[in-house]
Each structure stands twice: as C-alpha cells, then as structure tokens.
Write a structure and sequence with these properties.
about 350 residues; alpha+beta; five-stranded antiparallel beta sheet; about 25% helix
Length: about 350
C-alpha cells in the first residue's frame, strides 16, 4: 500500500517554476532518496509534502488522504509528517527528554515516560535525558531529532540532508543504524541528499532530479546499471563513452573490438551509438599490439586508476593489475555484456 503519492505536482517560487509535473510513490516502509544537484527541486518537493510550500497544480496524498491539491491545503501540523533537519532544529532551552516528547499528544505521565524510555533506548541515548543540546555531540543531537520525530509516530518521515553535519568517520555507521530503526518500525521515509554515496547506503529507491523533474526512479542498482540517459549515468558514477556501430541484433563494433550483448539490441544495423563503459568493467592486459596505450596511472591502494588512450577516446579504468606503466600498450576487454547504448 502506498503511504505517499505525489501526482503531477507543480510548484512556483518567487515567480519561477521549480517543480515541473512530478510523480512519486512511496510504499509502506520504503525509504526513497530525492537525489540531485543543488537547486534541482529536491528540498522544494520535501517542503511541499510537509506543507511548508504551496503547490500550484497537482495532488499530494498521505495514506489515501488528500493533503494538497488545486482546492485543498491541509496545514503542516495536521499531515502526520515528521521532519529531521540538517541542523537538527532542537530547542536549545529544552532538555533531551523535553525535546523528544515535544510533539507527543498524550498528557498521561506513565505513557509519556514509557515513550521517552523507548525512544532513548532506540537511539542509544540512555542516561542523557536531562542534558541540553549544547552538551551533546553533533551525532547525539541528530539522534535526539530522530527520536523526537519517531516519538510523534508520523505517517511519513521527511529527512532533509540529515547526515551532512555528521563527522565523516561515523556517518556511514549512523546511516546504517538509522536505516535499521526505520525498517524495524516500518516507517515510510523521504530523504533529500546530493550525495549518491549516501543515497546508495540509506535508501531503497532513488528519484534522480534534474531541473524540477524526476528523470529516473527505481532501485539504485538498476539506475546505475541501466541509466535512462547520460545525465543519470554521469551522476551515479564515473562513465566512459566509446563510439560504436551496431553490426547485428546482438553485437556492436568498437575501437577495442567487437562486443556482444546479452540482450537483443533494439537498434537498426549500421546505427552509430555511444557505448557506456564503467571503469570497473574494463580489464587490461599487456599486449605490444594492443588497441590502447596507458596514458596516466594513479595508485589508489588495492586498485590503480589508469587513463588509457584508445583512438580518439581517453578511458578511465579501475584495475587490480598494479604493474602497468605510462606508455605501455594494452588490450582492453569489456566484461559487462548488458550493454547500455546512447
């Protein structure tokens, strides 16, 4: 069942159209990352879902209840939405306990105490209930903001770049920890980030933005391996492009030799295309008459990052073969036969 549905949503800001007909569905217990560069509309959509930004057209529903459309606008506090911000947004004059319980409706003391203890245990802050935000580390403050959002029992949890202020050494561990918490509680969440690495670790699915539109939506691995266009391919990782010509229904000819596709190519024979090559899918071997020449070499620990010149192209290759040097001729074999052609 879908917890959140966004249908053909448009939104203007200061006379400029920011969101341009967005569609997005978040299933129960699913974590979706809104991913893209600054200014592409990610945070505007998050604010529109939260009720902090008006929409000019379209419809937003939460658990089948319309919260925004052309004739309806439900106030933010009545949407059942929890928010976790980049800067934690804790009340500095309130203790950890009071911050966590701020949005809890019940006034029953026993219930409030039980909820507090549950949340403190959940985010591993037992014994810190009486401290104030300034007495906590950045990671601890973010844990308090997470506990506060979950104590409210939201129908949808919205996270606006929640890890950007966390020390890099503990960021990944914390992302995995919070992901586990959300999964344990079957919470539907929408997460804004400009970092593909954060999105890969934290989210179930990615919605990749470009200039107010979602250009591709789905599981991270699918978007990485089957990008819809060059924008998606480049945003999600290093991409090489090699000119190719379709020679039959399952094969293309390139400057590194013929490459056979596992799947039928829906292109006419003779069509000139560009083949997407990820650096880790290219294998190098020494060959005096090889098609490529090592142009540059960079040692990265367990792999080397090579730049290899082939015809008019310069390819980046990540290889466990650490013995190659600049000027050396090499054969290049493409090891992935699920071809992506543009």
């Amino acid at each position: 069942m879908a917890t959140l549905q966004v249908k053909q949503v448009f939104s203007d800001y200061q006379g400029q159209e920011v969101l341009k007909g967005l569609d997005l569905t978040v299933e129960k217990g699913e974590i979706v990352a809104l991913l893209g560069p600054s200014g592409c509309g990610k945070t505007t959509l998050l604010r529109a879902i939260a009720g902090l930004q008006a929409i000019s057209h379209g419809c937003i529903t939460i658990n089948d209840r319309v919260v925004a459309d052309d004739g309806c606008f439900v106030a933010s506090e009545q949407r059942g939405v929890g928010m976790i911000f980049q800067d934690y947004a804790l009340f500095p004059h309130l203790t950890v306990a009071d911050n966590i319980l701020f949005g809890v409706v019940t006034r029953d003391k026993a219930q409030r105490k039980a909820r507090l203890e549950e949340m403190l245990s959940l985010v591993k802050l037992e014994g810190l209930a009486k401290r104030y935000p300034h007495e906590l580390s950045g990671g601890q403050q973010q844990r308090v903001s997470i506990a506060r959002a979950l104590a409210y029992e939201p129908e949808v949890l919205l996270l606006d770049e929640p890890f950007s202020n966390i020390d890099a050494k503990v960021r990944r561990e914390m992302m995995l920890e919070i992901r586990d918490i959300l999964k344990q509680h079957n919470v539907s969440a929408v997460f804004v980030t400009h970092s593909k690495d954060e999105a890969f670790v934290f989210a179930d699915k990615l919605a990749l933005f470009n200039e107010g539109r979602i250009v591709q939506f789905g599981e991270a691995e699918k978007l990485y391996s089957q990008p819809s266009d060059k924008y998606v391919a480049d945003f999600l990782g290093m991409a090489n492009y090699l000119k190719a010509k379709v020679v039959d229904t399952h094969e293309v000819e390139t400057s590194i030799g013929p490459i056979v596709s596992n799947n039928k190519l829906n292109l006419s024979v003779g069509a000139e295309v560009e083949l997407l090559l990820r650096p880790q899918d290219l294998h190098l071997t020494c060959a005096t008459d090889g098609a490529g020449e090592v142009f540059g070499r960079r040692f990265l620990g367990n792999i080397c990052q090579y730049q290899v010149k082939v015809a008019q192209s310069l390819l980046e290759v990540h290889s466990t073969n650490l013995d190659l040097v600049a000027g050396q001729r090499v054969d290049i074999v493409y090891q992935n036969h699920n071809l992506v052609l543009f």
